[in-house]
Amino acid sequence: MYPNLNTLELAHIYFNLKVHKPDLPVRPIIASINAPARLISSFLDQLLTPIYNEVTKDYTFINGIDVVRKLEKYQQDVYLTSTTLFVIFDVSDLYTMIPRDGALAALSRFCTKYATNKKIGNLTIDAILRLARVVLDTNSFAYKDKYYRQIKGGAMGSPFTMILTNIYMFDWEQDLIEHQTLHKEIYGRYIDDVFMTTNLSKEEILKELEATTKKDSNINITTAIYWTIYWTYIYWKSSDL
Questions:
Q1: Which of 61, 137, 224, 238 could join 66 via S-S bond, C-beta 3.0 to 4.6 A?
Q2: pLDDT band at 240 (very low <50, low <70, confident <90, very high)
Q3: Number of structural domains in the chain
Q4: pTM (two decimals)
Q5: What is the domain range of residue 23?
Q6: Does the residue 117 lie in any domain?
Q7: Pairing state of beta strands 221-226 and 85-91?
Q8: What is the mean pLDDT of residues 161-179?
């Protein structure tokens, strides 16, 4: 995991337009392919992502087909009624909002829970956390002849950022998952977009969401509740039943 000294370079930042959002905001991307901790970042991603994917497969949407299959089963089980509401919320600035200490604490809990003989692969949990700190501590980049270090969140462009953010979100969403499971409702997330069903009233489900968001001031969500949905190119309508 040592960097190649012949190709080593400081990361730099560039911006992509979010063409699907109003006013065309930008998404900052850190180009870090030759950065000092790039190999460590990739290693942690490859180590943790398969475990995360297996653990969260029932609560993660990969594509629109996943949503369709969930809704079809939901309908077959006679949970979809004329009172069903579709809840969609978006997490604002997902990759850049997670706090360093909170993310490392969530990572520690995740590794402890899913470790085998107190190890993930051949690494102890302490070793994984030390490697994670190296990646976070070296999130530095150049922009307009100045040097910056990212002190909150993860660098978009670093492989470790997605898995760390997903683990942090999985830790945060446990109460919602438990609530939805108890009420036999759908809960699924695709990166920063969450889709849920509910047969509670609009006021009741908003109260549940508010209770969850109050737990962590770093996570801000924008919520929409519909009788019909257009989500990931899917159209579904409960009021036709």
A1: 61
A2: very low
A3: 1
A4: 0.86
A5: 11-230
A6: yes
A7: antiparallel
A8: 95
